[in-house]
Each structure stands twice: as structure tokens, then as C-alpha cells.
Automatic annotation (TrEMBL):
PANTHER family: BIFUNCTIONAL (P)PPGPP SYNTHASE_HYDROLASE SPOT (PTHR21262:SF36), GUANOSINE-3',5'-BIS DIPHOSPHATE 3'-PYROPHOSPHOHYDROLASE (PTHR21262). This is GTP pyrophosphokinase rsh. Its EC number is 2.7.6.5. Keywords: Transferase. It comes from Lacimonas salitolerans. Transmembrane segments: none annotated.
Length: 710
């Protein structure tokens, strides 16, 4: 364990004016509180808080953050209280320790709803004081470094949480070194064989070519010296996980991967950065499309650097980053640079961003998104993306994630501009809205009065802000339609238990379900975000129908008038549980299609024939036929075993037709009577697991409807 004197010495290296007495008092108090507690490895528990504090000294953080690290588990795991910490160390530190404690109790990898709620709490904690997250990240880093002492299942859970949440968060905050180490430590747990394979290939490469890093570093220093540029040059091999990810993204083997080495040039001034770039490009050939200038267009977390990739010795590609020392400090500590100290005073780094402004920009688009799935999507979109920089016609810079489209650009300017967008020009050329934007392009958004967001925009947009705004607008547009359908769904659900869906009953249900009002309840019911059974259960928990109660075939579909009958479309054979739409036919009632049925395109110009329909909730009888396309081995007894297997899944075979016969296999179409889409999934899964089944798929043929019409 690091002694108190040694920890204080680490702080003095960058902050000679540190409050040594307060740090020593926190060290002694933390050790006393954790007395008798041990880690799974057998070490005294207090070794962990001390190690976390030591990690934070590498980022040259202030005394309050370091003391928080020493005490971060005292309120949760010892008899120490918030009041006692506040009395001894002040309000600021007590609140920081309490904030870390609350973060520790968040189960960020829990169910989707709970995870979304906990993410909201995470961002709220960050917005109060970002140092809470800095301590939590250092805490997670030390836990990952010592993860081998945990049980295997807990190792996997922690590693997955680290890979999905903490590593991207560290990267987004600009702490790239921490992101890379967290990813690699998690990779070691989640895919030890893959990591070991990368390491073996590295060793083999070094044996074949020798250690190329000193050679290339020497070459670069020579070229810079020739140009009269004073600079430091450092080289390193990429982390195993970084290499693995590139192999997966580019779908290529290690031997074909070229840029596995990275070099960093630290200069004395911004002008020297560009001079160094010129010297490097004069000596080595630049790789097209691999140049980024984050000095003139910095990232939102303050990161500044020039990135280029060149063909080095033996034609191998190497990545080069060029920056000043001040830029390097921000690149190493990211948003944390705001609290960094140098020579006993808060570092006056001109590139450090204001944490409050940074976090408000990050959370702005999340706070208004109510839907948990949409919220999580928005968070992950923003956390995992690289940036491109585009210009407005007036020359203002707009930062967007890689892969962004004009829709994202429009919403980044203003929600009103995004909603009214009808087209875009890129560098004065009219382009489709799905065009992927590139660095340096000038974008002009064309708007029109009366335009509203289209549902297809959700597939075009990539930013969380754009997707959130589009969904909100679509909900408002569809609200009346969904409310009307929801009213019908509520009527049927209440009639099933002998009750009426009065306004008062719906108001009560909305209150019990914590919805704003009756209209919100009906809209959610109509958009399938809520079930009729859940609404009934909110008021009459004892009367709510059991999900096992079988639904009568004649009332299986909701949304029809009393005099309308229905048939399932033979082209798509919709099953209960799938989203459906009805097409009316004079004299024949309504034909029900799956929402994604190709045959529906024939009715695009006849909107008056379309009906919004829903399958009734609950258990349906196994009378809904779906056709399966099976390819099976041509051996004795195979067909019998397949039929037995389907029977074991409580499904009936109502028809069987051989499509193709070959010496080695048969291909056949089999009609199977099913309850719902889940029942189909069970049958298909069982068939896919059978060794004699070479292929199985669902038959959906638009020509069947044509044949039926004729």
C-alpha cells in the first residue's frame, strides 16, 4: 500500500502548495474507518482508495478530488456518516463523497427501464460536479486492474459494464488513455483468447521485423531536427483491443492491418505543429483520407491535435499525432484539465473546457426524452461517435457525429429548422437528405412552411438530438389517431371484465399508471406502448384477464366495426403479436396484413381503405397458419423426426408440399398452425437446432395475394 508520505510526495510534484495536513488527515481517517476490512485478494481494503487517489494524481487533480478518492467508500461501507465527513473535511468534500457513493449504488447494466433511469441519475450527478465522475472512473480503473480476485461471473458483468459505459464515458471526457486501458482490461476478461492471439502476433511481428518503434522515432527526430523544429517524439504500439476492433470493423486479419503503431510529436507552439506536419509529409507519403485537423476544429471536450497517417518503413502505415504541450495536457486529462494544477496553482490551460458548459451540452438533448429505449439510444449515439465538422453558409462551425446527414445538421442548428427541412445543398449542390456529411463541407438547409417530420427520417438521422425531436413531433402528429384506436382498445379490454371504459375510469387508470392524463393513456394504448390488460389491472387488479385466457377467434382483432369480418392475408400470414394493418374490400370485409408486407404497396394511393388494427392481448388458439420453407437431409426417418419435433412444440402440421427433391436433400413447404409470433419463434428455433435441418425460413409471398384476387 502507498504510504501517506509517498502519496503526498506525488501531489507535491505538481502542487507544492497542497494542503498536506488535510490529505494526511483524510488518509488516517479512511484507514481507521476501513480497519478490519479486506478485499477478495486478501489485501487490506484501504489499499483500494489509496490506489484510486494515486491514479488521480497522474491527472494532477486538486486536493478535494484526492481526498474524495481516499474517503469514497467510507459513507457506504463503514460507520462514517455524511455529517462526520462534513465536520472533518468540509461541505464540498462531503458532497463529493456522497455523490460517488450514490453512483456506486447505480446498477448501470440492469434492465432497460432501470438502466435508463440510472443513466439519468448519472448525468444529474455529473451536472452537479464532474469530479464525482473522475473519482468513479479512477475507482473503476483500479477495480479492473485487480479484477482477477473476483468470481468469474462478476468479472464478466463488471467487464461488460466497463466496455459499454465507463470506457466510452472516459473517451467522451477526453481521457483517451483511460478509455484505452479500460477497454483493454475488459477485453482481457470478455475475450481472453482474442487478446492472447493479438499478443502472440505482436511477438511474432517483433521477431520478424525487430522493434520498429525506436527506428521510426529516430527517423522522425532526424527529420524534425533537419527542419529546425524542436520537438519531443514518442512511439507506441496500439492496445490489443484497439487492434481487435480495427480487425472487426475492416474485416481483415492482423497481417493485413497496417497502422498498428502510433507516434506523438509534442512541439513548443501551434505554428511548430504545422511545420512538423510539413516535415513529416515531405519525408513520408501521406495516406489519403486519414488527415484530421483538431487544432483549427477542436473537439467539444477541448481536444486539439493534428492527426495524419503516413507510409513509414517497409510501406507500413503509422499514425502520427502532433500537438503542443498545453494541448497534450488536455488530451491526457480531457475535461479534468479544468482542475489540473501546475506549480501549486490551478493550471491556466487555454484549451481546458468549462465542465459545466460541457456537461450541459451533453445532457441537453436527453432531459426531454421520456421513452427509456429512446433515451438509451440517444445516450449511446452521443457517447460512441467520432465527430465531423461542417459549416453553415455564414461560415459557422457545426460539430456532428461521423455518419451524420443534413437532417442532423438541420436539427443541430435549431429544432424548428429541422422540422421544416425539405432539402439540403452540400457545397452548393442539391443532395438527398440521407447523404452522409464529410469534414469541411458547407451545408445549406432548405425549409418550407407546413413541413412536418416524416417517419422515414428516423432511419436517416444519426444524432440523439434529431431522433428525439423527430419522435416527439411524430407522437404529436399521430396522437389523435392513436387516441381513437386507444379508446377502442380500452372499450374492448373493459368489456372483457364486465366494466365500462368511462372517462372517470380512464382518468383513474392514468393516475395509477403515473401518466399525465387520460389522453396520454389512450395515445400510449393506441401506439402499443401500453396494453389493455395493464390499464384494466391498474383499476381492477383482481378482474384483469389472465394472459393464459384463450381469445375467441372472432374477436382476435381490435379496431373493426361490429359488422366487419376479417381474414388473414395469405401473402404475409400475420400472426398475433405482430404489428398489423387492415385493407377493406367491398363485399369481403377486411384483409389483415403485417405492417411490413410488400403487398401493401399496391394500396399506397388508396389511404381511405387502410385501417389501424391490433391483435387482442392474451393467449390465442393455435389456428393461425404460417408456411415454413424447410431444407432437410434425404435420409430415412428424417421427415418423421421433423414432424415429431414440431408436434413437441404444440404446433399442428396442416399441409405439406415438396418443392424440390435431390439425392442429398428435400426442400418442402410446410403449413404449421400456431398461436402467435412467439410460438413461431419457438418452432423455428427447435428446427434450427436439429442437425438434419439445413435451412428453415418463413414463406412470405406477395404473389399469393394476386392469386387470391384472381
Amino acid at each position: 500500500m502507498i504510504a501517506a508520505d509517498d502519496l503526498i510526495a506525488l501531489v507535491r510534484n505538481y502542487n507544492p502548495k497542497t494542503n498536506e495536513d488535510l490529505i494526511r488527515a483524510a488518509y488516517d481517517f479512511g484507514r481507521q474507518m476501513h480497519e478490519g476490512q479486506f478485499r477478495r485478494s486478501g489485501e487490506a481494503y484501504f489499499t483500494h482508495p489509496v490506489a484510486v487517489a494515486a491514479i488521480l494524481t497522474e491527472q494532477r487533480l486538486d486536493d478535494a478530488t484526492l481526498i474524495t478518492a481516499l474517503l469514497h467508500d467510507t459513507i457506504e461501507d463503514t460507520k462514517a456518516s455524511f455529517a462526520e465527513v462534513e465536520r472533518r473535511f468540509g461541505r464540498e468534500i462531503a458532497e463529493l463523497v456522497d455523490g460517488v457513493t450514490k453512483l456506486t449504488n447505480l446498477q448501470l447494466s440492469s434492465t432497460e427501464t432501470q438502466q435508463a433511469e440510472n443513466f439519468r441519475k448519472l448525468f444529474m450527478a455529473m451536472s452537479k460536479d464532474l469530479r464525482v465522475i473522475l473519482v468513479k472512473l479512477a475507482d473503476r480503473l483500479h477495480n479492473m486492474r485487480t479484477i482477477k480476485a473476483m468470481k468469474v461471473e462478476k468479472q464478466v458483468k463488471k467487464a461488460r459494464e466497463t466496455m459499454d459505459i465507463y470506457a466510452p464515458l472516459a473517451g467522451r471526457m477526453g481521457m483517451q488513455w483511460m478509455r484505452e486501458e479500460l477497454e483493454d482490461l475488459a477485453f482481457k476478461v470478455l475475450n481472453p483468447e482474442g487478446r492472447a492471439s493479438i499478443m502472440r502476433r505482436f511477438i511474432t511481428l517483433q521477431k520478424e521485423t525487430g522493434d520498429v518503434i525506436p527506428r521510426i522515432t529516430g527517423d522522425m527526430r532526424t527529420e524534425l531536427a533537419k527542419a529546425g523544429i524542436e520537438a519531443q517524439v514518442f512511439g507506441r504500439a496500439k492496445k490489443p483491443y484497439s487492434i481487435w476492433r480495427k480487425m472487426q470493423e475492416k474485416d481483415m486479419g492482423f497481417s493485413r492491418l497496417s497502422d498498428i503503431y502510433g507516434f506523438r510529436i509534442i512541439t513548443g507552439s501551434e505554428m511548430a505543429c504545422y511545420q512538423a506536419l510539413g516535415a513529416i509529409h515531405q519525408r513520408w507519403r501521406a495516406v489519403p483520407g486519414r488527415f484530421k485537423d483538431y487544432i483549427s476544429q477542436p473537439k467539444s471536450n477541448g481536444y486539439r491535435s493534428i492527426h495524419t497517417t503516413v507510409s513509414g518503413r517497409d510501406g507500413k502505415r503509422v499514425e502520427v499525432q502532433i500537438r503542443t504541450q498545453a494541448m497534450h495536457d488536455v488530451a491526457e486529462t480531457g475535461v479534468a484539465a479544468h482542475w489540473s494544477y501546475r506549480d501549486g496553482v490551478r493550471s491556466e490551460n487555454p484549451f481546458a473546457v468549462d465542465p459545466a458548459r460541457w456537461i450541459s451540452g451533453l445532457t441537453e438533448q436527453f432531459t426531454s426524452e421520456e421513452d427509456h429505449e429512446d433515451f438509451l439510444e440517444a445516450v449511446k449515439l452521443e457517447m460512441y461517435t467520432d465527430k465531423v465538422f461542417c459549416f453553415t453558409p455564414k461560415g459557422e462551425v457545426v460539430k456532428l457525429p461521423k455518419g451524420a446527414t443534413p437532417i442532423d445538421f438541420a436539427y443541430a442548428i435549431h429544432t424548428r429548422i429541422g422540422s421544416a427541412c425539405v432539402g439540403a445543398k452540400v457545397d452548393s449542390m442539391r443532395v438527398p437528405l440521407w447523404t452522409r456529411l464529410k469534414n469541411g463541407q458547407s451545408i445549406e438547409i432548405i425549409t418550407a412552411e407546413g413541413q412536418t417530420p416524416q417517419a422515414t427520417w428516423l432511419d436517416i438521422a444519426t444524432t440523439g438530438k434529431a431522433k428525439t425531436a423527430i419522435r416527439r413531433a411524430l407522437r404529436e402528429v399521430d396522437r389523435e389517431r392513436f387516441s381513437k384506436l386507444g379508446r377502442e382498445l380500452a372499450r374492448v379490454a373493459f368489456e372483457n371484465v364486465g366494466k365500462k371504459a368511462t372517462d372517470k375510469a380512464l382518468d383513474t387508470a392514468a393516475k395509477r399508471l403515473r401518466l399525465s392524463d387520460r389522453d396520454e393513456l389512450l395515445a400510449r394504448l393506441g401506439s402499443a406502448e401500453l396494453t389493455g390488460r395493464a390499464v384494466v389491472q391498474a383499476i381492477y387488479p383482481d378482474l384483469a384477464p389472465s394472459p393464459n385466457d384463450e381469445i375467441d377467434r372472432n374477436r382476435a382483432v381490435i379496431g373493426l366495426s361490429p359488422d366487419q369480418s376479417f381474414d388473414r392475408a395469405p401473402c404475409c400470414q400475420p400472426l398475433p403479436g405482430e404489428r398489423i394493418v387492415g385493407i377493406t374490400f367491398r363485399g369481403r370485409g377486411v384483409v389483415v396484413h403485417s405492417i411490413d408486407c410488400e403487398a401493401l404497396s399496391a394500396y399506397d394511393e388508396q389511404p381511405d381503405r387502410w385501417l389501424d388494427l391490433h391483435w387482442h392481448g392474451g393467449s390465442h388458439p393455435a389456428i393461425h397458419t404460417a408456411t415454413l420453407d424447410l431444407t432437410i437431409g434425404n435420409d430415412a426417418g428424417v421427415l418423421g423426426r421433423i414432424c415429431t419435433l414440431i408436434g413437441e412444440q404444440k404446433a399442428n402440421i396442416s399441409n405439406l408440399e415438396f418443392v424440390d427433391r435431390k439425392p442429398d436433400f428435400f426442400r418442402l413447404h410446410m403449413d404449421v398452425d400456431l398461436r402467435d409470433a412467439e410460438h413461431l419463434h419457438s418452432v423455428v428455433t427447435a428446427l434450427e437446432a436439429e442437425s438434419d435441418v439445413a435451412a428453415v425460413s418463413r414463406v412470405r409471398d406477395p404473389m399469393r395475394l394476386t392469386a387470391q384476387r384472381n
